Amino acid sequence: MKHRTQISEICLYVPSIRMSFLNFLLFSLSSRFSIEFPSIFLCIATVFDKFQTFSTPNHHPRSQPFFDHVFSFSVTPDLKIWFRNFQIVDETLQLQEIGPRFVLETIRIFAGSFDGAVLYDNPDYESPNAKRRAIKLASKGKYIEKELHKKAAIVKAQQIKEVIAEKVEDPVGEIFEVKEKPSTEEAQRIAAIIDKKKKKKKLVKKAKYTGPESV
């Protein structure tokens, strides 16, 4: 009885509302189970009350009561079940996590093994097929948007080509284009100088590079 009292004091570190004792195993349930998952709470509590797989045989002549493990079931903020396995250290009577640790997401609980009345149904559960379908729909939307951008770019390029190919009369050129020769001598002299410079530019060519000169 004294040993059981010491173990109960140790388990105060694990938030629990119920502890079931086996022949080396303490079972701890989070207090949120009775609020968030009342059906799961009843199922797990009933199973562990009759659980003898991990314990010594019932009424075994050489079996003595001892406890050195704690199974903790807690509820996370996103309503998932977090399992942790602790070992009770004999020297210091403290809990030491030895694993395994894993997170469970409840989908549906039946009254039977694989059928029967539905005791609990998770309304927030999303199947992997639904998640993959959502990802495909999102990628499909991106593909459609990309194709629309391509078509818009092709139409715009075609419109630009049509505008460039279309010959439009330049009214400014008609007004300012002067084909008559200068009337005064000074204007004729200036025009001759400009034409001469233009001709020189056409005649002058850059010398081509023929390689290093031989010594």
From TrEMBL:
It is found in: Nucleus, Nucleolus. GO terms for molecular function: rRNA binding. It comes from the Eukaryota. GO terms for cellular component: nucleolus. The keyword Transport does not apply. Residues 1-115 form the Brix domain. Keywords: Nucleus, Ribosome biogenesis. Belongs to the BRX1 family. Required for biogenesis of the 60S ribosomal subunit. This is Ribosome biogenesis protein BRX1 homolog. It comes from Ancylostoma ceylanicum.
